[in-house]
Amino acid sequence: MKKIVIVILLLLLTGLGVYFIATNSKEKIVEPVLETSVEKEEITPATSTKNYENLSGFTFDYSEDLEIIENEDLDETVYTDLAITSAAASGSISLRIEDSKQKNISGWFKENPDASKSADLFETKLAEMNASEIYGQNELTLIVLDQGVLYQISVAFEDNKKYWQTAYDQIKSSFAFFTPQTTTSSSEISESSVSDDVLEEISE
Fold first, then answer.
1. For 49-177, CATH number?
2. pLDDT tens-digit profile of 27-49?
3. Which residues 6+ apart lie within 8 Å of 79 measured at CB?
4. In contact, 103 and 143? CB cutoff 8 Å
5. pLDDT tens-digit profile of 103-145?
6. Could you tell me how many helices (H) and strands (E) the chain has, helices first?
7. What pTM was computed for the model?
């Protein structure tokens, strides 16, 4: 009877020893920490606007947090070349108006066949002129060809598509033409005054 008890105790001790060794030698499984992806909050331009007028005879409204840089190094075929940027968002808008050998939009597409193959090609208006919007990968181009003059607005969205789409829509919807006022120079005024004085003396 004592032998049986001893055998049982030995078996229990052996089992406990094996269990202790097994639990201590088992590698701890470390669960990986999953990084929670935080979606980038999309921003939009300020709702308050400013007005821009160009001596070429066009104007548009734009958000006050945008900056317009005029390229002054232009040749005689280019009427204006603007770069529009923002400190609040990466990306940009460029606006360029220049003479073109083509007389209509069909001619421009013949020179740029890849643009006509774009699936995201839409017809729109710019100041009552027929225009084409071409959406590419992370970019947008608006083209107008009217009476041999090419109007091109290019948008680089980068990581802020909503921001620059909103800024572009504001510029496009408010774009209009006006007749620049001509100012009489001081020399012309002086000459006119002198002429009037001379005429008065002659009449006397």
1. 3.40.1000.10
2. 444 555 555 555 667 899 999 99
3. 56, 97, 98, 149
4. no
5. 888 888 888 888 877 768 999 999 999 999 999 989 999 999 9
6. 5, 10
7. 0.70
